[in-house]
Amino acid sequence: MIPLFLAQATVPATEAASGITKLVNDFGINLPGILAQMVSFCVVAFVLWRFAFKPVIATLDERKQKIESGLKYAEEMKAKLDATRQESAELIKKAQLECAKFIEEARKAAKDFSDREQKAATERANDIVAKAQQAIELEHKKMLADTRGEIARLVVAITQRVLAKELNDADRTRYNESAARELTGV
Predict the structure, then answer these.
(1) 52 neighbors 45 (Cβ within 8 angstroms)
(2) For a FRET experiment, which of 60, 131, 138, 151 has its CA 20 to 30 Å from that of 120?
(3) What predicted TM-score, i.e. pTM, was given to this entire model?
């Protein structure tokens, strides 16, 4: 149809008008019906645009904005989550370092305590050994003193028996005292 209209555009206006009416009559076109349909289509298109397409487009725009804000929020939350994970990792690392430090301090304190207790036990054992040695020395001295006394008594008794026959009482007493002094170390 377009070539036909273009071909008629070159024809003078009176001929064009007669050509259009001829065309309309040849094809059986009802011009007032077509005009009514065009007006009706424009009204329907306007109503649809105004009350159907415009709200749908507004709803779609609103949903698009919500989706964009949701995606933006998700990205922000992802960034916050990453920051929180990083912070948690740092806190865990710091806690592990502190824990290792506490463990090392506890080991050191336990070793110090063990060393102190071992030293104290060694000192107590040395004290016990020293006291035992002192007791042994005292017992040894007592035994020597008892032995010397017994030996002196035996020497005096033997000397008395040997000298009883040849010495008088004054000489015997003097020899007895002399022998007792030498044996006792006094």
Answers:
(1) no
(2) 138
(3) 0.39
CA neighbours closer than 13 Å in the CB half-sphere of residue 131: 6
Q: What total number of domains does the chain contain?
A: 1
Range of the domain at 93: 2-184
Q: Phi then psi for 180, rounded to 5 degrees?
A: -65, -40
Helices (H) and strands (E) in the chain, counts: 5, 0
Token pair recorded at residue 172 = 């015997």
Nearest to 178 by CA among 165, 71, 111, 163: 163
Q: Say if residue 79 is exposed, middle or buried (CB neighbours under 10 Å; 0-12, 13-18, 19+).
A: exposed
3 state DSSP class of 7? helix
Model pLDDT for residues 34-66, shown as the tens digit of each residue = 899 999 999 999 999 899 888 899 999 999 999
pLDDT tens column, 82-135: 999 999 999 999 999 999 999 999 999 999 999 999 999 999 999 999 999 999
